[in-house]
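Example complex used in Figure S2.
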Amino acid sequence: MELINYFRSSASYRVRIALAIKGLAYDYTSVHLANSEHLGAAWSGTLPAALVPVLKVAVGDGDGGGGGDGGGDGGGDAVLTQSMAIIEYLDETHPEPPLLPRDPLGRARVRALAQDIACEIHPLNNLRVLRYLVRELKVSEDAKNAWYRHWVETGLATVERQLAAQPATFCHGDTPTLADCVLVPQIFNARRFEARLDHVPQTMRVFERCMALEAFSSTQPSKCPDAE
Amino acid sequence: MELINYFRSSASYRVRIALAIKGLAYDYTSVHLANSEHLGAAWSGTLPAALVPVLKVAVGDGDGGGGGDGGGDGGGDAVLTQSMAIIEYLDETHPEPPLLPRDPLGRARVRALAQDIACEIHPLNNLRVLRYLVRELKVSEDAKNAWYRHWVETGLATVERQLAAQPATFCHGDTPTLADCVLVPQIFNARRFEARLDHVPQTMRVFERCMALEAFSSTQPSKCPDAE
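Predicted assembly (456 residues):
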Protein backbone atom coordinates (compact mmCIF):
# COMPACT_ATOMS: atom_id res chain seq x y z
CA MET A 1 0.00 0.00 0.00
CA GLU A 2 1.05 3.55 -0.69
CA LEU A 3 -0.31 6.53 1.23
CA ILE A 4 -0.09 9.80 -0.68
CA ASN A 5 -0.42 12.50 1.92
CA TYR A 6 0.99 15.58 3.62
CA PHE A 7 2.25 15.79 7.19
CA ARG A 8 0.03 18.69 8.16
CA SER A 9 -3.16 17.51 6.43
CA SER A 10 -5.53 16.41 9.16
CA ALA A 11 -7.42 14.11 6.81
CA SER A 12 -4.08 12.40 6.08
CA TYR A 13 -3.35 12.07 9.78
CA ARG A 14 -6.70 10.28 10.28
CA VAL A 15 -5.62 7.54 7.88
CA ARG A 16 -2.11 7.30 9.34
CA ILE A 17 -3.68 6.60 12.74
CA ALA A 18 -5.95 3.90 11.32
CA LEU A 19 -3.07 2.23 9.49
CA ALA A 20 -1.03 2.27 12.71
CA ILE A 21 -3.87 0.84 14.82
CA LYS A 22 -4.23 -1.97 12.27
CA GLY A 23 -0.45 -2.48 12.24
CA LEU A 24 -0.30 -2.13 8.46
CA ALA A 25 2.91 -1.20 6.66
CA TYR A 26 2.78 1.32 3.81
CA ASP A 27 4.93 3.52 1.63
CA TYR A 28 4.75 7.18 2.63
CA THR A 29 4.58 9.61 -0.29
CA SER A 30 4.43 13.31 0.44
CA VAL A 31 2.64 15.98 -1.61
CA HIS A 32 3.40 19.50 -0.44
CA LEU A 33 -0.02 21.15 -0.13
CA ALA A 34 1.18 24.49 1.17
CA ASN A 35 3.33 24.85 -1.96
CA SER A 36 0.34 23.84 -4.12
CA GLU A 37 2.24 20.81 -5.39
CA HIS A 38 -1.07 18.91 -5.42
CA LEU A 39 -2.48 21.25 -8.07
CA GLY A 40 0.32 20.56 -10.54
CA ALA A 41 0.20 18.36 -13.62
CA ALA A 42 2.40 15.71 -12.00
CA TRP A 43 -0.41 14.81 -9.62
CA SER A 44 -3.51 15.42 -11.73
CA GLY A 45 -3.89 11.76 -12.68
CA THR A 46 -3.44 10.41 -9.17
CA LEU A 47 -5.38 12.89 -7.06
CA PRO A 48 -8.87 13.01 -8.59
CA ALA A 49 -10.01 15.85 -6.36
CA ALA A 50 -6.61 17.49 -5.83
CA LEU A 51 -7.05 16.42 -2.22
CA VAL A 52 -5.05 14.16 0.04
CA PRO A 53 -4.98 11.52 1.37
CA VAL A 54 -5.11 8.92 -1.36
CA LEU A 55 -4.43 5.26 -0.61
CA LYS A 56 -3.19 3.05 -3.43
CA VAL A 57 -3.86 -0.62 -2.88
CA ALA A 58 -2.93 -3.55 -5.10
CA VAL A 59 -6.15 -5.06 -6.43
CA GLY A 60 -6.71 -8.61 -5.24
CA ASP A 61 -4.16 -8.05 -2.49
CA GLY A 62 -6.06 -7.50 0.69
CA ASP A 63 -9.27 -6.21 -0.81
CA GLY A 64 -11.00 -9.08 0.92
CA GLY A 65 -13.92 -9.07 -1.46
CA GLY A 66 -12.79 -10.69 -4.68
CA GLY A 67 -12.57 -8.72 -7.86
CA GLY A 68 -11.37 -5.24 -8.42
CA ASP A 69 -14.34 -3.74 -10.21
CA GLY A 70 -14.88 -1.27 -7.46
CA GLY A 71 -12.55 1.57 -6.92
CA GLY A 72 -9.76 1.22 -9.41
CA ASP A 73 -8.85 2.06 -12.93
CA GLY A 74 -8.90 -1.51 -14.16
CA GLY A 75 -5.15 -1.80 -13.70
CA GLY A 76 -3.15 -3.31 -10.88
CA ASP A 77 -3.84 -0.60 -8.31
CA ALA A 78 -7.03 0.79 -6.88
CA VAL A 79 -6.91 4.43 -5.87
CA LEU A 80 -8.99 5.14 -2.78
CA THR A 81 -9.98 8.67 -1.79
CA GLN A 82 -11.77 10.34 1.14
CA SER A 83 -10.28 9.57 4.53
CA MET A 84 -13.40 8.16 6.22
CA ALA A 85 -14.09 5.88 3.24
CA ILE A 86 -10.47 4.73 3.33
CA ILE A 87 -10.68 3.95 7.06
CA GLU A 88 -13.90 1.97 6.61
CA TYR A 89 -12.19 0.04 3.78
CA LEU A 90 -9.24 -0.76 6.04
CA ASP A 91 -11.66 -1.87 8.75
CA GLU A 92 -13.54 -4.17 6.36
CA THR A 93 -10.41 -5.73 4.88
CA HIS A 94 -8.40 -5.90 8.13
CA PRO A 95 -11.06 -6.34 10.83
CA GLU A 96 -8.77 -6.54 13.86
CA PRO A 97 -8.64 -4.49 15.96
CA PRO A 98 -12.03 -3.07 14.94
CA LEU A 99 -12.50 0.66 14.37
CA LEU A 100 -16.28 0.46 14.63
CA PRO A 101 -18.42 -1.16 17.34
CA ARG A 102 -20.40 -4.29 16.49
CA ASP A 103 -23.91 -3.00 17.23
CA PRO A 104 -25.65 -0.82 14.62
CA LEU A 105 -26.56 1.92 17.10
CA GLY A 106 -22.96 2.11 18.30
CA ARG A 107 -21.70 2.20 14.71
CA ALA A 108 -24.16 4.99 13.94
CA ARG A 109 -22.94 6.97 16.95
CA VAL A 110 -19.28 6.57 16.03
CA ARG A 111 -19.89 7.52 12.41
CA ALA A 112 -21.98 10.52 13.46
CA LEU A 113 -19.23 11.76 15.80
CA ALA A 114 -16.68 11.39 13.00
CA GLN A 115 -18.98 13.24 10.61
CA ASP A 116 -19.64 15.99 13.16
CA ILE A 117 -15.97 16.82 12.64
CA ALA A 118 -15.37 15.72 9.06
CA CYS A 119 -18.55 17.30 7.66
CA GLU A 120 -19.13 20.27 9.97
CA ILE A 121 -15.73 21.56 11.07
CA HIS A 122 -12.92 20.43 8.80
CA PRO A 123 -14.38 21.37 5.38
CA LEU A 124 -14.76 24.97 6.45
CA ASN A 125 -11.13 25.22 7.46
CA ASN A 126 -9.56 23.47 4.53
CA LEU A 127 -6.62 25.22 2.88
CA ARG A 128 -8.51 25.93 -0.35
CA VAL A 129 -11.40 27.47 1.59
CA LEU A 130 -9.09 29.75 3.57
CA ARG A 131 -7.47 30.76 0.28
CA TYR A 132 -10.85 31.62 -1.21
CA LEU A 133 -11.66 33.80 1.81
CA VAL A 134 -8.42 35.73 1.41
CA ARG A 135 -8.06 35.89 -2.36
CA GLU A 136 -11.65 36.17 -3.57
CA LEU A 137 -13.47 37.70 -0.61
CA LYS A 138 -10.51 39.86 0.51
CA VAL A 139 -11.02 38.82 4.11
CA SER A 140 -8.38 40.07 6.55
CA GLU A 141 -5.98 37.74 8.33
CA ASP A 142 -7.76 38.41 11.62
CA ALA A 143 -11.19 37.69 10.16
CA LYS A 144 -9.88 34.52 8.51
CA ASN A 145 -8.53 33.28 11.84
CA ALA A 146 -11.79 34.19 13.59
CA TRP A 147 -13.66 32.16 10.95
CA TYR A 148 -11.37 29.20 11.59
CA ARG A 149 -11.81 29.34 15.34
CA HIS A 150 -15.57 29.88 15.10
CA TRP A 151 -16.19 26.57 13.30
CA VAL A 152 -13.73 24.67 15.48
CA GLU A 153 -15.12 26.00 18.74
CA THR A 154 -18.81 25.61 17.90
CA GLY A 155 -18.24 22.25 16.20
CA LEU A 156 -16.27 20.81 19.10
CA ALA A 157 -19.00 22.00 21.50
CA THR A 158 -21.37 19.70 19.62
CA VAL A 159 -18.93 16.81 20.01
CA GLU A 160 -18.48 17.65 23.69
CA ARG A 161 -22.23 17.45 24.42
CA GLN A 162 -22.33 13.97 22.96
CA LEU A 163 -19.22 12.75 24.78
CA ALA A 164 -20.48 14.20 28.06
CA ALA A 165 -23.85 12.46 27.61
CA GLN A 166 -22.16 9.06 27.38
CA PRO A 167 -18.65 9.26 28.88
CA ALA A 168 -16.21 6.50 27.97
CA THR A 169 -12.47 5.93 27.80
CA PHE A 170 -12.40 6.96 24.16
CA CYS A 171 -15.05 8.68 22.04
CA HIS A 172 -17.09 5.49 22.23
CA GLY A 173 -16.23 2.55 24.43
CA ASP A 174 -12.85 1.43 25.71
CA THR A 175 -10.94 1.13 22.43
CA PRO A 176 -10.24 3.76 19.80
CA THR A 177 -12.64 3.99 16.85
CA LEU A 178 -13.08 5.92 13.63
CA ALA A 179 -14.32 8.82 15.78
CA ASP A 180 -10.99 9.07 17.61
CA CYS A 181 -9.08 8.86 14.30
CA VAL A 182 -10.98 11.96 13.18
CA LEU A 183 -11.03 13.81 16.52
CA VAL A 184 -7.33 13.85 17.30
CA PRO A 185 -6.14 15.56 14.08
CA GLN A 186 -8.85 18.19 14.56
CA ILE A 187 -7.41 19.07 17.97
CA PHE A 188 -3.98 19.53 16.39
CA ASN A 189 -5.54 21.97 13.93
CA ALA A 190 -7.40 23.75 16.72
CA ARG A 191 -4.19 24.31 18.64
CA ARG A 192 -2.33 25.52 15.58
CA PHE A 193 -4.93 28.26 15.12
CA GLU A 194 -5.14 28.91 18.87
CA ALA A 195 -8.81 28.01 19.15
CA ARG A 196 -10.36 27.86 22.62
CA LEU A 197 -10.48 24.36 24.04
CA ASP A 198 -11.35 25.00 27.69
CA HIS A 199 -15.06 24.53 26.97
CA VAL A 200 -14.58 20.90 25.84
CA PRO A 201 -13.04 19.03 28.80
CA GLN A 202 -14.42 15.58 27.92
CA THR A 203 -13.10 15.97 24.41
CA MET A 204 -9.66 16.95 25.64
CA ARG A 205 -9.62 14.06 28.09
CA VAL A 206 -10.25 11.67 25.19
CA PHE A 207 -7.61 13.46 23.13
CA GLU A 208 -4.97 13.00 25.84
CA ARG A 209 -5.94 9.36 26.26
CA CYS A 210 -5.46 8.80 22.53
CA MET A 211 -2.11 10.59 22.47
CA ALA A 212 -0.83 8.15 25.10
CA LEU A 213 -1.10 5.46 22.43
CA GLU A 214 1.73 4.81 19.99
CA ALA A 215 -0.67 4.67 17.01
CA PHE A 216 -1.67 8.30 17.60
CA SER A 217 1.61 9.75 18.81
CA SER A 218 3.98 8.15 16.29
CA THR A 219 1.90 9.35 13.32
CA GLN A 220 1.42 12.96 14.41
CA PRO A 221 2.48 15.68 11.98
CA SER A 222 5.82 16.49 13.62
CA LYS A 223 6.92 12.83 13.36
CA CYS A 224 6.26 12.55 9.62
CA PRO A 225 9.08 12.19 7.07
CA ASP A 226 8.04 15.45 5.39
CA ALA A 227 7.57 17.44 8.61
CA GLU A 228 9.05 20.93 8.56
CA MET B 1 -39.43 5.85 13.47
CA GLU B 2 -39.67 9.62 13.42
CA LEU B 3 -37.71 11.78 11.00
CA ILE B 4 -37.15 15.32 12.22
CA ASN B 5 -36.28 17.31 9.14
CA TYR B 6 -37.03 20.23 6.83
CA PHE B 7 -38.28 20.01 3.27
CA ARG B 8 -35.48 22.10 1.79
CA SER B 9 -32.61 20.60 3.79
CA SER B 10 -30.61 18.48 1.37
CA ALA B 11 -29.22 16.31 4.18
CA SER B 12 -32.83 15.59 5.17
CA TYR B 13 -33.71 14.70 1.58
CA ARG B 14 -30.85 12.14 1.53
CA VAL B 15 -32.46 10.25 4.40
CA ARG B 16 -35.97 10.52 2.93
CA ILE B 17 -34.66 8.83 -0.23
CA ALA B 18 -33.02 6.02 1.75
CA LEU B 19 -36.17 5.43 3.81
CA ALA B 20 -38.21 5.29 0.60
CA ILE B 21 -35.80 2.87 -1.11
CA LYS B 22 -36.03 0.62 1.93
CA GLY B 23 -39.81 0.96 1.98
CA LEU B 24 -39.81 2.08 5.61
CA ALA B 25 -42.69 4.04 7.12
CA TYR B 26 -41.94 6.98 9.42
CA ASP B 27 -43.49 9.99 11.08
CA TYR B 28 -42.53 13.25 9.37
CA THR B 29 -41.76 16.11 11.76
CA SER B 30 -40.80 19.46 10.32
CA VAL B 31 -38.44 22.03 11.84
CA HIS B 32 -38.42 25.32 9.98
CA LEU B 33 -34.72 26.07 9.43
CA ALA B 34 -35.17 29.26 7.48
CA ASN B 35 -37.12 30.71 10.42
CA SER B 36 -34.38 29.50 12.81
CA GLU B 37 -36.89 27.29 14.61
CA HIS B 38 -34.07 24.73 15.10
CA LEU B 39 -32.13 27.19 17.27
CA GLY B 40 -34.98 27.65 19.77
CA ALA B 41 -35.28 26.11 23.22
CA ALA B 42 -38.03 23.73 22.08
CA TRP B 43 -35.53 21.79 19.99
CA SER B 44 -32.34 22.12 22.01
CA GLY B 45 -32.75 18.72 23.68
CA THR B 46 -33.56 16.85 20.48
CA LEU B 47 -31.16 18.36 17.97
CA PRO B 48 -27.70 18.01 19.53
CA ALA B 49 -26.01 20.03 16.81
CA ALA B 50 -28.98 22.23 15.89
CA LEU B 51 -28.86 20.40 12.58
CA VAL B 52 -31.37 18.23 10.77
CA PRO B 53 -32.07 15.47 9.97
CA VAL B 54 -32.45 13.50 13.15
CA LEU B 55 -33.94 10.01 13.14
CA LYS B 56 -35.56 8.73 16.30
CA VAL B 57 -35.75 4.97 16.52
CA ALA B 58 -37.25 2.82 19.25
CA VAL B 59 -34.41 0.93 20.90
CA GLY B 60 -34.72 -2.81 20.46
CA ASP B 61 -37.14 -2.25 17.60
CA GLY B 62 -35.27 -2.78 14.39
CA ASP B 63 -31.81 -1.97 15.66
CA GLY B 64 -30.80 -5.45 14.59
CA GLY B 65 -27.91 -5.62 16.98
CA GLY B 66 -29.32 -6.22 20.42
CA GLY B 67 -28.92 -3.67 23.15
CA GLY B 68 -29.32 0.03 22.95
CA ASP B 69 -26.08 1.20 24.49
CA GLY B 70 -25.10 2.90 21.32
CA GLY B 71 -26.79 6.01 20.14
CA GLY B 72 -29.48 6.81 22.61
CA ASP B 73 -30.09 8.52 25.87
CA GLY B 74 -30.76 5.37 27.84
CA GLY B 75 -34.51 5.76 27.36
CA GLY B 76 -36.85 4.17 24.88
CA ASP B 77 -35.62 6.07 21.83
CA ALA B 78 -32.24 6.40 20.22
CA VAL B 79 -31.57 9.71 18.51
CA LEU B 80 -29.46 9.31 15.38
CA THR B 81 -27.73 12.25 13.74
CA GLN B 82 -25.69 12.87 10.58
CA SER B 83 -27.39 11.81 7.37
CA MET B 84 -24.71 9.42 6.07
CA ALA B 85 -24.46 7.69 9.45
CA ILE B 86 -28.27 7.37 9.52
CA ILE B 87 -28.32 5.86 6.02
CA GLU B 88 -25.60 3.33 6.93
CA TYR B 89 -27.63 2.44 10.04
CA LEU B 90 -30.73 1.88 7.91
CA ASP B 91 -28.67 -0.26 5.54
CA GLU B 92 -27.31 -2.39 8.37
CA THR B 93 -30.66 -2.89 10.07
CA HIS B 94 -32.74 -3.25 6.88
CA PRO B 95 -30.31 -4.79 4.37
CA GLU B 96 -32.67 -5.09 1.39
CA PRO B 97 -32.37 -3.50 -1.07
CA PRO B 98 -28.73 -2.70 -0.28
CA LEU B 99 -27.44 0.87 -0.46
CA LEU B 100 -23.79 -0.21 -0.58
CA PRO B 101 -22.13 -2.78 -2.87
CA ARG B 102 -20.88 -6.04 -1.37
CA ASP B 103 -17.18 -5.74 -2.27
CA PRO B 104 -14.94 -3.53 -0.10
CA LEU B 105 -13.51 -1.60 -3.07
CA GLY B 106 -16.99 -0.85 -4.35
CA ARG B 107 -18.12 0.21 -0.89
CA ALA B 108 -15.10 2.49 -0.62
CA ARG B 109 -15.90 4.05 -3.99
CA VAL B 110 -19.54 4.67 -3.09
CA ARG B 111 -18.66 6.16 0.29
CA ALA B 112 -15.99 8.35 -1.29
CA LEU B 113 -18.43 9.69 -3.89
CA ALA B 114 -20.94 10.45 -1.14
CA GLN B 115 -18.23 12.18 0.90
CA ASP B 116 -17.03 14.15 -2.13
CA ILE B 117 -20.41 15.86 -1.87
CA ALA B 118 -21.16 15.64 1.85
CA CYS B 119 -17.68 16.73 2.98
CA GLU B 120 -16.50 18.97 0.14
CA ILE B 121 -19.55 20.75 -1.27
CA HIS B 122 -22.48 20.74 1.11
CA PRO B 123 -20.78 21.99 4.32
CA LEU B 124 -19.62 25.14 2.56
CA ASN B 125 -23.13 25.98 1.44
CA ASN B 126 -24.99 25.23 4.62
CA LEU B 127 -27.43 27.88 5.84
CA ARG B 128 -25.35 28.78 8.90
CA VAL B 129 -22.23 29.24 6.76
CA LEU B 130 -24.03 31.53 4.32
CA ARG B 131 -25.31 33.49 7.31
CA TYR B 132 -21.78 33.87 8.67
CA LEU B 133 -20.57 35.16 5.31
CA VAL B 134 -23.28 37.81 5.24
CA ARG B 135 -23.52 38.78 8.90
CA GLU B 136 -19.94 38.48 10.10
CA LEU B 137 -17.89 38.96 6.95
CA LYS B 138 -20.31 41.47 5.36
CA VAL B 139 -20.13 39.65 2.05
CA SER B 140 -22.49 40.96 -0.63
CA GLU B 141 -25.39 38.92 -1.97
CA ASP B 142 -23.58 38.50 -5.29
CA ALA B 143 -20.36 37.34 -3.64
CA LYS B 144 -22.30 34.93 -1.45
CA ASN B 145 -23.97 33.39 -4.49
CA ALA B 146 -20.64 33.18 -6.31
CA TRP B 147 -19.20 31.35 -3.29
CA TYR B 148 -22.11 28.92 -3.37
CA ARG B 149 -21.74 28.22 -7.07
CA HIS B 150 -17.94 27.93 -6.86
CA TRP B 151 -18.03 25.00 -4.43
CA VAL B 152 -20.92 23.29 -6.23
CA GLU B 153 -19.33 23.61 -9.67
CA THR B 154 -15.80 22.58 -8.68
CA GLY B 155 -17.06 19.84 -6.37
CA LEU B 156 -19.37 18.33 -8.97
CA ALA B 157 -16.50 18.39 -11.50
CA THR B 158 -14.66 16.01 -9.15
CA VAL B 159 -17.69 13.73 -9.01
CA GLU B 160 -18.03 13.92 -12.80
CA ARG B 161 -14.44 12.74 -13.39
CA GLN B 162 -15.08 9.69 -11.29
CA LEU B 163 -18.43 8.86 -12.88
CA ALA B 164 -16.94 9.31 -16.36
CA ALA B 165 -14.04 6.98 -15.50
CA GLN B 166 -16.42 4.17 -14.65
CA PRO B 167 -19.84 4.84 -16.23
CA ALA B 168 -22.82 2.93 -14.85
CA THR B 169 -26.58 3.25 -14.65
CA PHE B 170 -26.36 4.96 -11.29
CA CYS B 171 -23.34 6.45 -9.50
CA HIS B 172 -22.05 2.91 -9.02
CA GLY B 173 -23.61 -0.15 -10.60
CA ASP B 174 -27.17 -0.72 -11.71
CA THR B 175 -29.03 0.06 -8.49
CA PRO B 176 -29.08 3.26 -6.43
CA THR B 177 -26.61 3.52 -3.55
CA LEU B 178 -25.67 5.91 -0.75
CA ALA B 179 -23.87 7.98 -3.40
CA ASP B 180 -27.10 8.58 -5.33
CA CYS B 181 -28.93 9.46 -2.08
CA VAL B 182 -26.37 12.23 -1.55
CA LEU B 183 -25.97 13.33 -5.18
CA VAL B 184 -29.61 14.03 -6.04
CA PRO B 185 -30.30 16.56 -3.24
CA GLN B 186 -27.08 18.38 -4.18
CA ILE B 187 -28.37 18.86 -7.72
CA PHE B 188 -31.58 20.36 -6.34
CA ASN B 189 -29.45 22.85 -4.38
CA ALA B 190 -27.30 23.58 -7.41
CA ARG B 191 -30.36 24.44 -9.48
CA ARG B 192 -31.82 26.64 -6.77
CA PHE B 193 -28.66 28.73 -6.78
CA GLU B 194 -28.38 28.60 -10.58
CA ALA B 195 -25.03 26.86 -10.61
CA ARG B 196 -23.63 25.68 -13.95
CA LEU B 197 -24.34 22.03 -14.65
CA ASP B 198 -23.43 21.72 -18.33
CA HIS B 199 -19.91 20.58 -17.44
CA VAL B 200 -21.16 17.46 -15.62
CA PRO B 201 -23.14 15.43 -18.21
CA GLN B 202 -22.55 12.00 -16.64
CA THR B 203 -23.65 13.37 -13.28
CA MET B 204 -26.84 14.82 -14.76
CA ARG B 205 -27.57 11.58 -16.61
CA VAL B 206 -27.41 9.73 -13.27
CA PHE B 207 -29.54 12.44 -11.66
CA GLU B 208 -32.27 12.06 -14.29
CA ARG B 209 -32.15 8.27 -13.96
CA CYS B 210 -32.65 8.59 -10.21
CA MET B 211 -35.51 11.04 -10.58
CA ALA B 212 -37.37 8.50 -12.71
CA LEU B 213 -37.65 6.39 -9.55
CA GLU B 214 -40.51 6.88 -7.11
CA ALA B 215 -38.13 6.81 -4.09
CA PHE B 216 -36.35 9.94 -5.36
CA SER B 217 -39.27 11.81 -6.92
CA SER B 218 -41.86 11.30 -4.18
CA THR B 219 -39.49 12.57 -1.46
CA GLN B 220 -38.25 15.70 -3.23
CA PRO B 221 -38.64 19.02 -1.40
CA SER B 222 -41.74 20.19 -3.26
CA LYS B 223 -43.61 17.01 -2.31
CA CYS B 224 -42.96 17.32 1.43
CA PRO B 225 -45.75 18.12 3.92
CA ASP B 226 -43.96 21.32 4.96
CA ALA B 227 -43.13 22.50 1.42
CA GLU B 228 -43.79 26.16 0.75
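The radius of gyration of chain B is 18 Å. Residues 84 and 196 of chain B are 26 Å apart (CA to CA).
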